[in-house]
Amino acid sequence: MASVFTKIAxxxxxxxxxxxxxxxxxxxxxxxxxxxxxxxxxxxxxxxxFDLDEDTYLGLFAFAGKVARAMKSALPCKRVGVxxxxxxxxxxxxxxxxxxxxxxxxxxxxxxxxxxxxxxxxAEAISRQFERQ
Length: 133
What we know:
Structural class: alpha+beta
């Protein structure tokens, strides 16, 4: 059975798309810890990030870097934090979180509640910056 992230990348489940190419997909986390919290996945479903083949692993981080630069241009933040947790969905993924301080990377804090319109606005702003690179 395909993971929820595979279904998102395949368009079977709607998402707030940031960017994609033939191998990778970036979309807003629907339970964000910060405005613009983005997930980056390989389209190839592999459970654990360190089980990815080297080419996919390196490509995933290169793609995530482009997404992070777009986020930094589109959103007010000092940095974009990176986290690889991988426990909640059995599909390798990277969390990119806009941050002002290290406390912004606290995954235990309450999640933000954003309207669909706000999610769309954030996704479109980041996507525009991604396309300009």
